[in-house]
Amino acid sequence: MTAHDPYEDIAALLEGLVALQEKKVLALARRLKPGLTAEDIRNPHDFTELDDRDYHYEDGMLNGLQAAVMALRARGREARS
Questions:
Q1: Helix spans in 1-81 (H)
Q2: C-alpha–C-alpha distance, residues 41 and 59, integer Å
Q3: What CA–CA distance (Å, rounded) separates 59 from 6?
Q4: I need a labelling partner for 7 at 20 to 30 A (CA). Which of 32, 42, 70, 80 fits?
Q5: H-helix or E-strand containing 45?
């Protein structure tokens, strides 16, 4: 039996939030410019329609969640070594 890793538990929870936020960001982007794909919004500067305050806020929230997942995983690796 492996040891319980609280860092991974929290990272997994945050990854669920990341997935929800990714859907939210894509839905908002598609309201601003129909037909955009998840790949398209990785380069939002290519689409002037995405120069929108609400879009930037939601995309910033997504980036923050992604950064939190990376930080937790890094801290978990440090704790295990």
A1: 6-32, 53-80
A2: 9
A3: 27
A4: 42
A5: none
